[in-house]
Every structure is written in structure tokens, then in C-alpha cells.
Amino acid sequence: MFPVAILAGGLATRLRPITNQIPKSLIEVAGQPFIFHQLEYLRKQGIKSVVLCVGFLGEMIEDFVGDGSRWGMNISYSLDGPSLLGTGGAIRQALPLLGEHFFILYGDSYLPVDFSAVEKTYKNSGKRGLMTVLRNQNRWDKSNVEFSAGQIIEYNKSTIRPEMHYIDYGLGLLQRSTIAAYSTLQSFDLSKVYNDLSLSGELAGYEVFERFYEIGSLQGIEDTQSYLISNCRPSND
């Protein structure tokens, strides 16, 4: 399985004052720091290597998670540094720790999806990137993806068109050269990378049929906790 880059460097302003003292990844959900749930389900997927892209209070995440031996995997860390790099810039900075191909997962997301099936679809597509999508119909957020026959026709967060019935599910795959082409001199968002790929016909799609869970809001935390309590057993120390 390809390595996984987890974007865990955001300021989580919507969750203040909770996140004034701890990073979002360490918020307790269903009895454990959220990042523990993520790593446990990555372990069950057969993932062996994880790179945590951290920023604000990132040293706390490293203190809690360590080298990954608890989950039987290798975990390394890529720090934003003195200035925020954006989600795209954070992945760009982490490239020395990643392979030629890698998954990208947001640090506040719990995604009931088969990683091996997603990886197989990416390999078979021959495209430079892949985005998992959910038929959303504006239910969870504004639909921003036009998807047809395994291809992302367009992904665009800023210009929404009537043909866009899908939303970014939260798990992507990229090849190293795709992200390496972007400048290290300025902050940029991962959404730009996906938009550029979609417009050039280089973004494959993988449709998921089960909703995603996230801890970016108080309601999201409540929903995620209910799901985890019902469906997931905690890992052993």
C-alpha cells in the first residue's frame, strides 16, 4: 500500500476555545484522541507508512503519537515552519518523506472506504491524481464536483455549476511529480492542485456511497463519536 500523508496543521478556528490549547487531531472522540482512531483504521487497511503534516501545536501530536510502533507502522513528521504553507504547500514540503505515489487524508476526517480499492482504481486509471467523491446534492456542503464514468470533469470550490452533484469525499491520491511542479515560494491550497488536474483531464474519480465523518465542527464531532461508538472497537495500548 502507498504511504498516507495526513494534513493535521490547521488552526481549527471553528472549534475555539477547545483548540486554543490542543490541536484538532487530539480532541477526544469516543474515549481517545481522534488521531488514534484514524491511525487504527489505517492500520486495519494495511497502511505501513504515515507522514503527519503538522503546524500549530504539532509537537503535542508528536508527543502523543510517537514513531507509530503502537500501530505497527512507521510515522514521520513534516512541520509547516514559521509560516503557514497551505494544504498544498504542506504536501509539497513533505515530499522527501513520501514515495512516488501517496494517499492524502485530512486530519479531521474519518472515511469508511476501502483504501486498497481506491489505490487499484488510481493505478488502473493512468492519471496523475485521483479524488474520492460522494454524490452529495448539497447535503453536507456545496457540491463542487462534476463526475462521470470514473472521471472528474471539473472540481472547483469557487465556481459552482448546476452539473456538480458530487463533493470531495476527503481521500485523494497523487504522484510525486504532480505536486513537485508547484512553487515552494508561496502558500497554496490542495484544491488548486485538484482543480488544475481536473481541467487537464488528469484527475480520476472513485465514487463512495457511505457518508464521511469529520470533527471540524461540534455537530461533526457528535456525529463522528456516535459512528465510532457504534462501529469501531478502540485499539489496545
Per DSSP, what share of the residues sits in E-state strands of 2 or more residues?
25-35%
Radius of gyration: 17 Å
CATH architecture: Alpha-Beta Complex
Order of neighbouring strands in the sheet with most strands: 5-4-1-6-11-8-12
Tell the overall outline. Answer: globular
The CATH class turns out to be Alpha Beta
Mean pLDDT score, rounded? 88
Order of helices and strands: EEEHEHEHEEHEEEEHHEEH
CATH topology category name: Spore Coat Polysaccharide Biosynthesis Protein SpsA, Chain A
The CATH homologous superfamily name equals Spore Coat Polysaccharide Biosynthesis Protein SpsA, Chain A
Structure description:
With 237 residues, this protein is of the alpha/beta class. It has a single domain, classed as Spore Coat Polysaccharide Biosynthesis Protein SpsA, Chain A (Alpha-Beta Complex). It is built from seven helices and 13 strands. It has helices at 34-44, 58-65, 86-94, 115-125, 176-180, 190-199, 218-231, and strands at 4-8, 28-29, 32-33, 49-54, 74-79, 101-106, 109-110, 129-135, 145-148, 151-155, 166-175, 203-208, 213-214. The strands form four sheets. Strands 5-4-1-6-11-8-12 form a seven-stranded mixed beta sheet, with helices on both faces. Helix 3 (86-94) packs across helix 6 (190-199). The mean pLDDT is 88.
